[in-house]
Specification:
Layout lengths: L9 H10 L7 H25 L6 H10 L5 E6 L4 E7 L5 E7 L4 E2 L3 H5 L4 H7 L17 H7 L9
Antiparallel strand pairs: 1-2, 2-3, 3-4
Length: about 160
């Protein structure tokens, strides 16, 4: 399942920007230069992974913290099975209702299931649960352990 906030061709655009200065090289030189650039990036990410602590990646913890401020959302109904209805106030006098399921990690706004990061509606509910931690509701994709595992191996050198 995809865990992104939006789907675009940014990967191709980022890669093209990354190699724009070397695209004119001969194919074998181009591939060797890309391999070298990957080695550098891999080693940098491995160093970052060694410094990370906690359960969830720092930028996700920051995002959850930012999203949890100034919530104009109230939990309307709550049930022991983790399904609640929340009411979010809009920019005008209107309000919108969303159904949050903390067990299945879904919200009727569909943001939580798409990204794996609790939406503002889910955050409002989770923070109302005594002793609950937001990081326990984030998909494991964003865990420090997964990041470390991704850069655990090596990119082999060419001799």
């Amino acid at each position: 399942m995809s865990k992104v906030d939006y789907i675009t061709n940014n990967l191709a655009e980022a890669f093209n920007k990354w190699v724009k200065d070397i695209k004119s090289q001969n194919l074998d030189d181009l591939l060797d230069t890309i391999r070298h650039m990957l080695l550098i990036k891999w080693n940098n990410r491995k160093k970052v992974a060694q410094t990370l602590q906690g359960k969830i990646l720092p930028h996700i913890v920051q995002r959850l913290g930012d999203d949890s401020f100034n919530l104009d959302i109230e939990v309307i109904t709550s049930s022991p099975d983790g399904i609640v209805e929340v009411c979010a106030k809009g920019s005008s006098a209107t309000s919108f209702r969303f159904v949050v399921n903390s067990v299945e990690r879904t919200c009727s706004c569909r943001a939580w299931q798409g990204s794996g990061i609790p939406c503002r509606h889910a955050i409002a509910y989770i923070t109302s649960i005594p002793g609950a931690k937001l990081e326990d509701y984030v998909h494991e994709y964003y865990s420090v352990d997964m990041f470390k595992a991704a850069y655990e191996g090596q990119v082999m050198s060419v001799s």
